[in-house]
């Protein structure tokens, strides 16, 4: 239906998560209307990802160099570590502008069914970071089966080495009790203060 090069562009866009044929087609038509400068900027950004984006050697976050901005920042509290599943979670936590500790990115969650085991994640480097100066490790994984499994595993690994806490779960702000499922209510009761 379309010329081969245009079809190839549609196919490339459709490999993105959550992008179907129609959305990929729309992206391709949008790209077609870009001026030369925009296209060159896009190409440069894409090609620099493989060589320019690294994983922080301390926490596993995305970085331009050997260490990420949080690990290099001396004004942050390096004695409190927040453990997250992915770099996207850091952005969410930073948006609240209240947390001043550092991070540790697991780059996934334990999922036995998919063959993702603890050794496939960035867990051992977290254990290696724990010393007498670490006051608290906050586990901020999703409240899913995989997130809970990972949190439990890390909690047991760090037991007796430092204080380990978990983000509270429960009823969201603006939520209604009569619309809340039993599991969420249970977590809200367990985490009450």
UniProtKB/TrEMBL annotation:
Alphabetized UniProt keyword annotations: DNA damage, DNA recombination, DNA repair, Metal-binding, Zinc, Zinc-finger
InterPro entries in the record: DNA_Rcmb_RecR, Rcmb_RecR, Rcmb_RecR_Znf, TOPRIM_dom, TOPRIM_RecR
Domain Toprim: 79-172
Zinc finger (C4-type): 56-71
Gene Ontology terms: biological process: DNA recombination; DNA repair
Keyword Chaperone on entry: no
Pfam (any one): Toprim_4
Annotated GO MF terms: DNA binding; zinc ion binding
Entry similarity comment: Belongs to the RecR family.
Function: May play a role in DNA repair. It seems to be involved in an RecBC-independent recombinational process of DNA repair. It may act with RecF and RecO.
PANTHER family found in the cross-reference section: RECOMBINATION PROTEIN RECR
Protein name: Recombination protein RecR
Origin species: Faecalitalea cylindroides
The encoding gene: recR
């Amino acid at each position: 239906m379309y010329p081969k090069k245009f079809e190839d562009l549609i196919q490339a866009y459709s490999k993105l998560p959550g992008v179907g044929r129609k959305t990929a087609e729309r992206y391709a038509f949008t790209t077609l209307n870009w001026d030369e400068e925009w296209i060159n900027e896009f190409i440069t950004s894409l090609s620099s990802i493989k060589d320019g984006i690294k994983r922080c050697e301390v926490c596993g976050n995305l970085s331009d160099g050997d260490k990420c901005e949080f690990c290099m920042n001396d004004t942050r509290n390096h004695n409190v570590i927040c453990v997250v599943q992915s770099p996207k979670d850091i952005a969410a936590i930073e948006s609240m502008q209240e947390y001043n500790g550092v991070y540790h990115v697991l780059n996934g969650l334990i999922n036995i069914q998919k063959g993702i085991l603890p050794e496939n994640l960035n867990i051992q480097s977290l254990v290696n970071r724990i010393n007498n100066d670490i006051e608290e490790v906050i586990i901020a994984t999703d409240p899913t089966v995989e997130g809970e499994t990972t949190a439990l595993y890390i909690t047991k690994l760090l037991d007796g080495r430092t204080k380990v806490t978990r983000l509270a779960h429960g009823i969201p702000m603006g939520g209604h009790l009569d619309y809340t499922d039993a599991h969420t209510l249970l977590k809200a009761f367990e985490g009450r203060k």
